[in-house]
From TrEMBL:
Keywords: Aminoacyl-tRNA synthetase, ATP-binding, Cytoplasm, Ligase, Nucleotide-binding, Protein biosynthesis, RNA-binding. The keyword Ligase applies. The keyword RNA-binding applies. Catalyzes the attachment of tyrosine to tRNA(Tyr) in a two-step reaction: tyrosine is first activated by ATP to form Tyr-AMP and then transferred to the acceptor end of tRNA(Tyr). A motif ('HIGH' region) lies at residues 50-59. Homodimer. This is Tyrosine--tRNA ligase. It is an enzyme of class 6 (ligase). It catalyses: tRNA(Tyr) + L-tyrosine + ATP = L-tyrosyl-tRNA(Tyr) + AMP + diphosphate + H(+).
Amino acid sequence: MTEQTSPTDFRSPFMREAQARGFLFQCTDAEALDAAMLAGPVTGYIGFDPTADSLHVGSATQIMLLRLLQKHGHRPVALLGGGTAKIGDPSFREEARSLMSDDTIAKNIAGIEGSLRQMMTFGEGPSDAVLANNADWLDKLSYIELLREVGVHFSVNRMLSFDSVRSRLEREQGLTFLEFNYSILQSFDFRELNRRYGVTLQMGGSDQWGNIVSGIDLVRRTDSKQVFGLTAPLLTTASGAKMGKSAKGAVWLSAAKLPVFEYWQFWRNTEDADVGRFLKLFSDLPIEECDRLGALEGASINEAKKILATEATALCHGRAAAEEAEETARKVFEAGTTATALPTRTLPRADLEAGLPAFRIFTEAGLATSNGEARRLIRGGGARVNDVQIKDEGQIVSLADAVDGSIKLSSGKKHHILVQPV
């Protein structure tokens, strides 16, 4: 099994485009997978454990891989880990995840499903996406049956060699036996999906390589079938920051957790060196156009960033919402007006009628994580109320400052919130 893919003259449209867009990192047998895709539709899956009620931008690469599979006539399966979430994937984590209740898992699954349905076409057609939940089979497993039928095929020595396991064993907390079973259950998923849906390809981030290889080995040993594994690189920005995080926290795909405007702004703030690469990964624009836009310099690269922001937001939230976010940004940053589509924060009417010190309203609105940070923001000249700089951290801000029922607060040039009474 090959570890990392090298430039290859693939023949299947999926493999050619996946490589050209930067999705390919590792593949167990790239040439055989390429041939299988030429021979007929391939069914491939990616698993998403419901650790929160939304996925974040770090998961967008995986969804885009499933979209690309569907684009080229293959069938994607999005596997929700309702069963594996009860254990938690320990891969490259510093400590064990907190165990979740069944109600929390169900709530998280509902939230994630919304984003998946927005970004892929589900249905009964040959290339329509399938939504599965591994709780459907893992919850029914007998432990003795699992040990006898599946556990016998796993070498503890080999499992201990995985980077994801070694990194935990070297830490103070170590790895619980509960978490150690995760790889076995993920391998069981691959075999079960192969039997139920004919899945022959598992995809994921490069941190899943060990788990994917284990699943391939289990299918080969128990069912004598050839299946494949493919991973995408774990993305970082040009400056080395991990994708999926911003200065304000996780960049969620759900509009209920992150306003569409802020999602658009995340992409608009992409570093210059990342524009072309991210256009290939997170938009449907032709590769040649992505290269052209990514090569722009000076003020022109800012226009390319707006295109990236709108295209990436359209895939996640729909074209209309993306264009509204773009227009909001134009009004706020270019025309200097207050736009109603800015993210809003409600505060008690009584507090706003009485008035709050400037440092406190910035904290309450979420533009600062503490009163101390808000004070430093104001002292540094980065705080504005209705586009007017605040110089006194104790200045009272009240409903008397409202314009059309809202008070516009700004932190620097990029973060804006409308405060409204409730």
